[in-house]
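Bug report (template v2)

What were you trying to do?
Predict the complex of my protein with fe (ii) ion.

What happened?
Run completed; filing so the output is reviewed.

Input:
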Amino acid sequence: MILSQYNQYYSSNILKEFNCPTYVIEHSKAVMLKATNLAFNFKGDVDLDLVKAGSMVHDVGRSKTKGIKHAIIGADILRNNGVPSEIVEIVERHIGAGITREEAEIIGLPSKDYLPVTLEEKLVAHADNLIHGTNEVDLDFVVRKWKNKLGVDHPSISRIIKLHNELTGESKLP
Ligand SMILES: [Fe+2]
């Protein structure tokens, strides 16, 4: 049997190695299932093993911090451990529907564009939006959460709705 190059990263063992708490492991498994389900809309165009690997490790940075920087810290951890860059980029770009360079500068992240680009990056970011803890939530819940955090007119809200429509085929309005 030929194993995918990403196969080794979608076991929860990797999260245990980096001392992630149990709730992160359970959340990551739920995100993996949701991302896999969303990926069915794109059969043939998506690397499912990469989606599974990125889902499993997307919150590895939560072993160090609960804040928004966990995406960047997680990406650094993986990069320093020789994890393939396409997995690292899924992790770095998984907050909401991504963060622009301008927004990153405002919130004190290293000046860089953190928007998801590939289908695999988008699938993991949005599966994470739609899983709260281990529970599936709907888009209204996600929009309410980010409006509370960032304000009703923040551009990231419409970005999340646009990403949702792109990945689900729905036509939700802002
Ligand atoms: Fe996260």
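What did the reviewer find?
The pocket of fe (ii) ion is lined by residues 58-59, 70-71, 94, 128 (CB under 6 Å). The radius of gyration is 15 Å.
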